[in-house]
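Suppose a colleague, Dr. K., hands you the sequence of a protein chain of 420 amino acids and asks what its three-dimensional shape might be. Before reaching for any lab equipment, you can write down a predicted structure in token form. Begin with the sequence itself:
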Amino acid sequence: MDVTGTAVVGDGDTPGRMAPRSPSDTRVELISTVLAFVMAIGVLVLLVGLFVSPAMWASGAAVFTLTGSVLWLLGKTPAGRRNTVRHERDAARYARMRARTAARAEQRQQAAATEMAERRAHEAARTLERAVRELLADLPKRGTPQDKAIAHCLKKTLDVRDPRLQAEAERLARRYVAVDERILCVAQSEAEGKARPALLILTDRGAAVSDRGISYRFDPQPDDVIFAADGSRGHLRVGELVFPFLRYSRFRVALAAREEAAAADPPAESVHRPAQRLIRDARDAELVAVDWMRYLGFTDAVATPVGADDGIDVLARHAVAQVKKEGSPTTRPTVQQLHGVSTAKQRAALFFSMAGYTPPAITWASQQGIALFQYDLQGTPHPVNPPALSLLEAADEQSSRVADTAAAIPADTSDGPAAT
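The predicted structure, expressed as tokens, is then:
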């Protein structure tokens, strides 16, 4: 029961229900309603009397005071208190109902917003996936000359008619992009005033940056890619440099395509000795070493950019190699330097030299298990020590085995089932 002695029924979240109204409760509520209406008229008369006459104002004030006093006295009666409690509970119930309705409406709005965001994200992901497939299909084949690959990428930008940019990109690629990397995009950074923007070449295995005469190799990480709140814009940050997507729409797609581009067209395992190749410069010698390392079993061997990795010219998952095209034999300290790098990387070491090796270098390399090869102007390497001979013999044996297996499989030349 409440303080007035009226029984109140409630069940927690559901508003309580009071006992049925008595005739006195109904009469008090009816009188209160009439008095409230009369009080409102008195207030109106009072306000009008301010501008008409003092007598009207006094009449309105008297009506307001009298009806207010009577209402106060009725509220102090048991029936009045019961009605007051009932009105307060009804107001609280309506407030809770409005709050629940608002909460349900907000939940529906949030659910609709979440569904819309998920739909947009799904559509954006599908659009990006299609763009990645189109970019990979449009890329030049692996091994395309770097100048042609760069020109192809520049055709997709606003800088297609900038010969200076083409020349700068070619110089950067020669120094820091391996010949068998696939160039995905060429972009320039934001620049203030007349400052020359920085240049970035994005490949399937990393990136190269040139900024105010300083160039270096860079490997973009996911944290370096920053998107705007709406997801429509973004940029790649390289230190203090900002390479925006807005001007280079292909740039964002290229970043997304890196893993797929790196996995595409993996180097096939060689089963025949590489063809001869004329050695004209140091880069030709490195490419020859790549072919022969793949033949020797290191099928993922790639030529590294010039000066990019502690003097290593060819890099594979399980081996490193150095290539020398010099007029004098390679000495022991040079071989020891390669041994130090290979030990740190925990990979096998191979050395290719056109002029051969000094006797101390051969002796020390044989003790350490470093394979030494000497190649001629046609690019054919010859083993110089036992580790190199073992590698070459194993590769020749594997090649012979594969060839014998292929020869043992009969070719299917029939056009259909044999007649009986």
